[in-house]
Amino acid sequence: MPERTHREKIERIRERNDILFKKSPNSPLTHEQKDDFKGIPYFPIDKKYEIIFRMKKFDDYSEITITTTRFDNRKYSRYGYIEFELEGKMNKLTVFKPIDDDYLFVPFKDTTTGKESYKIGRYVEIEKISKEEWVIDFNTAYNPLCAYNDNWNCSLTPDENILDIPIRAGMKIYPDYRGSH
Predict the structure, then answer these.
(1) Taking a C-beta distance cutoff of 8 angstroms, is the pair 118, 104 a contact?
(2) How far apart are CA 157 and CA 118, in angstroms?
(3) Domain boundaries of the chain, sorted by first residue
(4) What is the C-alpha separation between 88 and 43, in angstroms, rounded?
(5) Helices H, strands E: what count in the chain?
(6) Which of 83, 85, 86, 97 has the least C-beta neighbours within 10 A?
(7) What is the pTM for the complete model shown?
(8) 124 beta partners
(9) For position 62, what pLDDT does the model report?
(10) If the chain, 181 residues long, is cut into consecutive pieces of 10 residues, what is the mean pLDDT of each piece?
(11) Widest pairwise Cα distance in the chain
(12) Which of 147, 85, 90 is nearest to 116 (CA)?
């Protein structure tokens, strides 16, 4: 996708997120938080964080239990993994699929976690763009709902998805909430 079109797409997503957070009955914010909501803070949009890849499947099916912020356990399967070069390093992230659902889940932490981005990590979606190719765009990385208040229970990031590079893309820490997680 050309850079201008990419930027416009990300800007539209961000505008829609702000509207949903402020006005939707399904917003993760409490009524009090909505009253003071000034918008979600984001890193600048950077096309280098849009990565096209081929999904690599694991040789054997494996299941993992991921703990949540409320110490519950959620079951996922390791669907596959992504390998990509960024910041001069090869990186790898595991793609998870909930056992009882049909979406793909990529939680991750990076060197911004707990400083510039939310302390338990962020999530990012992947999209299939052809028979063999997928795209991950960290510009769309988002905070789990528990980043906004204690009403939410979120899956933690497994150790295998901790990157030792900064991902300065997507949502930053939400400044109005200092959750206990």
Answers:
(1) no
(2) 11
(3) 3-161
(4) 20
(5) 2, 8
(6) 85
(7) 0.91
(8) 106
(9) 86
(10) 84 96 94 92 97 89 91 94 94 93 92 96 95 96 94 95 98 71 42
(11) 50
(12) 147
